[in-house]
Design a protein that fits this description.
- The protein has 147 residues and is an alpha+beta fold.
- It has one helix and three strands; from the N terminus they run H-E-E-E.
- It has a three-stranded antiparallel beta sheet with strand order 1-2-3, with helices on one face.
- The longest helix has 51 residues, at 2-52.
């Protein structure tokens, strides 16, 4: 009986040591997946913006940000990446086959006035592990700058 208890104790100690490493490895893998998907999406956004002269929200690519707003659904025809609703002149797409959800099940977004360090920048991003988004600029957001 004592031997069984010792074996169970050793297994418990090993589990306590390994579990945090596995959780960190999982989080790192999710982050790398999002980084790769953001590069793919940002490339599609830039190709579309060069062809059409407008960002997915309809703002001029070369102009300053307006109140056109963010695009929370990059799969919609209004975004112009997979199809168009006709609001993107000289559209040569589709620019991407599909826009997946991020590793935490949230949609990626486009924002041409994302607030970073006191400045606004054009970004494509993920709300990160906590999923807080829609104009919530918290530290776990993951994004790619397009300007």
């Amino acid at each position: 009986m004592v031997e069984v208890m010792i074996v169970i104790g050793v297994i418990a100690i090993l589990t306590a040591i390994v579990a945090p490493s596995l959780a960190k490895a999982r989080n790192d893998a999710q982050r790398k997946k999002v980084d790769g998907e953001l590069e793919m999406i940002s490339s599609a956004v830039l190709k579309m913006a060069w062809d059409t002269g407008v960002w997915p929200n309809g703002d001029a690519r070369s102009g300053s940000a307006t109140d056109s707003g963010e695009i929370w659904d990059l799969t919609s025809p209004a975004a112009g990446l997979m199809s168009t609703d006709g609001s993107h002149p000289n559209w040569q797409g589709p620019y991407i086959r599909e826009v997946p959800l991020d590793s935490w099940g949230n949609p990626y977004f486009f924002d041409n006035d994302y607030f970073i360090g006191g400045d606004t920048r054009v970004t494509v991003g993920s709300f990160g592990p906590n999923g807080n988004g829609r104009n919530v600029y918290d530290s776990d957001n993951i994004y790619v700058l397009l300007d």
